[in-house]
Amino acid sequence: MEEEKAKFDSHKASLLVDELRTSFGSGKTRSYEWRITQMKNLLKMIDERESDIIEALQDDLSKPELESFIAEISISKASCKMVIKELKHWMKPEKAKTELTTAPSSAEIISEPFGVVLIISAWNYPFLLSLDPVIGAIAAGNAVVLKPSEISPATSSLLAKFLPEYLDTSAIRVVEGAVSETTALLEQRWDKILYTGNGKVGRIVMAAAVKHLTPVVLELGGKSPVVVDSNINLNVAAKRIIAGKWASNNGQACIAADYIITTKSFAPKVVDALKSTLEDFFGKDPLESKDLSRIVNSNHFTRLTKLMDEDKVSDKIVHGGQRDEKLLYIAPTILLDVPQDSLIMTEEIFGPLLPIVTVEKLEESFDLINSKSKPLSAYLFTKDKKLEKKFVESVSAGGLVINDTCLHFATPSLPFGGVGASGMGSYHGKFSFECFSHKKPVLYRSFGGEASARYPPYTPKKKRLLRALLNGDIIGLILALIGWPRT
Ligand code: NAD
Fold this sequence. Notes:
The structure is a single chain. By secondary structure, this protein is α/β, with parallel strands linked by helices. It is built from 19 helices and 18 strands. The chain has helices spanning 2-6, 10-25, 32-48, 50-61, 65-91, 128-139, 153-166, 179-186, 199-210, 234-244, 267-282, 298-309, 311-314, 343-346, 364-370, 385-394, 430-435, 460-470, 474-482, and strands at 94-96, 105-113, 116-120, 143-147, 172-174, 192-196, 216-219, 225-228, 259-263, 317-319, 323-324, 329-330, 333-336, 353-359, 377-381, 399-402, 423-424, 437-445. The model is unreliable at 1-5 (pLDDT under 50). Residues 120-124, 129, 147, 149-151, 178-179, 182-183, 196-198, 201, 204, 219-221, 254, 348, 350, 376, 418, 423 line the site of nicotinamide-adenine-dinucleotide.
């Protein structure tokens, strides 16, 4: 791994892919036993290295220990455990129905690994977003290269150090690095690429994949709205919004609430509820709180302060705004009625700032959401079942949650992914296995059941027979077979 890290160019990338292709070609990664062994070893790694993982996440993001445990470690472990429990069942070929036109025959759908796959991950949940797709790729029987994010170097080097200690390095490798290493990797032919990160690089990944017609999954971001009705339990809603925003990596989460939409008359109550709950959670001086992650680096710190310091925005701050440039902390910050054409309302925030947009009637919010690029998630807090139904039917987003935020991510029976500008493809739970499997259909026939009507020369009788058969016209078929009426 160290060598790969030292000088990783296109030539090295090509040798690496060749090596993994040979391993995949040997068939070893396809066996149930190999996949399960990797999964058990991965689980062992997470258990044995838990304190190292927590420390790396502390180094990269000052991520609170409990957040690391809940959102990175335990979800990764749950994914491994699910594979161990379900893989035999997932790998079973699925019987498929056949038609009279192919009788006698039988059919099945086989889940076949794609081959050698590339996973490029992001910095904000650097452990989970690296391992979770790797788990899916291994479960599906692929050889894998993981490229963790250079923006979270401690977790990247932890993965590069420990994965080879626990997993089969002839088929599973980690390449550390930034743009040049990723570019070298993207020049190779892969059988599938899963990329997590921003849409600009997503386009670079997709353009590189075009060369070899490689299928891609793009796990991108967007502006995830939270619509807040006035008929709700505001106390509970405030806690749940804060949990999915500031208690999730201080807003540096792809599915964190990006902005709130509520009515003009209810907005002051929303602001008050958020303020007092924020104080309960993070104290009077949130910059002193041990329960808030810091901003990942000074580039992102500058990007975020630019969003809140824009002329037409800075006087809209109704709570927070404090920052510590040296320690890279920004306090939970709420803004009210910022203009729609401000940077904060046109770019994904991906940090601790939360603007509140007000409307006269809540229904208007659905059009507002749909007028923007499709978000990764959208949330609604309401007790109004009609409004809920309209939201579910009319708002297009990667995923929706009613009366909470973010929890769909931790529901492995739901596919997780974006739509439109927020991405394409999905994974999690069984969907991760499917994401890295080609559904290969197989139709089985024997040498019996010859139907001469399908072969030339095409006589009028054959034409009559085939038309009746393909139209499902049983009487016509019988008549054609007995040749009645005689012509
Ligand atoms: P990042 O900076 O870590 O970049 C992601 C990956 O892209 C890294 O591995 C990096 O090395 C690589 N990369 C960067 N520039 C590249 C280039 N020019 N060519 C090739 N590779 C390159 O992460 P980021 O993009 O800052 O992540 C934040 C974004 O990701 C946000 O938009 C967020 O919403 C989104 N995100 C989405 C999900 C999801 O599951 N949908 C999860 C986390 C983050």
